[in-house]
Write a structure and sequence with these properties.
Alpha-Beta Plaits, binds zinc ion, Aminopeptidase, 2 domains, 441 residues, 12 helices, alpha+beta, 4-stranded antiparallel beta sheet
Amino acid sequence: MLDYEEVPPRSGLLFSVRENAASTGPTAKTVADLAASSSMRDCLQWFVRERQWISDRHLQLCRIPAPTFFEQRRAEWMANEFRSLGCDAKLDRAGNVLATVDATSDGPYLAVTAHLDTVLAPRRDEEIVCGPDGKMSGPGVADNGAGLSALLAIAAAVKACPELEERLGNILFVANVGEEGEGNLSGMRYLCRQSPQAPKIHSFLVLDGPNVDHITTRALASRRFEIIYTGPGGHSWSDYGIANPVHALARAITIFSEQQSSFNHGSPRSSYNFGVMEGGTSINSIPTEARAKIDLRSESAAKLEDMVHLLAGCVERSLDVENERSVGRTAATRVAAKIREIGSRPGGELPDDSALLKTLRAVDSHLGIRAQVDCASTDANIPLSLGLPAMSIGAGGFGGGAHTPAEWFHPEGRHVGLQRIVLTLALAAAGGRALTTAATP
Ligand SMILES: [Zn+2]
């Protein structure tokens, strides 16, 4: 018997979320005019002038351990920082921090997000080090100290330039939980599907890590399953002949590997991995249980779906063969299997003609940034899978070694990354207002 656990669908939206694909996006002149306006000029300068303030916050937040599922202390610290800047900030039921520069704003929002959690966490303050040249090292300084400090820097810069507050009043700053590993994008999932704010958010700009060299517009989909075989078990000699869960599981893996490998080459790229396998209690007992965990990924949602179906088919086939061979073939001698979904990162894609992407491209050409679009698994997976405009970019500066103890971040040029974000937000937020006028009740 096979069964799947499904995720609930997103509730109805208050307005049409499909971007106007025919939108031409801002021109280079629009960006230049905005950047030259007195309030925006002050804001862009703020990032240059207040480099030390930004780096101080960056170090402080990285020193608060926040491994996935244990983000609360860092979340509370972030919320307090937003409040001390004069923002409205609260934690939602998932543990995400939500903040706005304008306490009265009620959307529609453009969300700028950064995940709170890290794969590795510091055990002592001294593990987060800052050298004389400003280079930081330690777990999480790039991924996602860069993104989180960018949220605070942008909120602080906007608060310092009151004329911008109205323009950016409907930016929702989100420091979310559950991006890494087994977190399975839980914070973003809650924000997009269950949060009272969900229907009010029209677009997402995800800040993940440093750099300005990439724009993730395609969401790499992945699904993870645990396969559990169960049977009556027995003595290896006296009960020989009853169906064996380990044999059935091994057969399923063999059939899947043989069939899947044949169509896993070329583009779109896909992968699979049986990463964990366990079961049985002793060499001379027929096991009562066998389990395996498999990770499936693909650049193509359709191909990923095919892989899931293939997996289900292979499990069914393995049961048939094992039960066919079992002596007596009664319920008492058969094995059964259950496939449990333990992780799912849905795929999706931001269309090339998306207004959000065009806006970022216009800002990039104004700032002289050349960025490549790519495909990766980020918090943007969730909104993209729901058809909402979203992309993930770095928050400036340089860095590397993510998810290792040798992680580092250098703030050189960070102000350019922050200027890029604030210009994009200011232009895309204006686009969002146009969206509401086309609202559907
Ligand atoms: Zn990250």
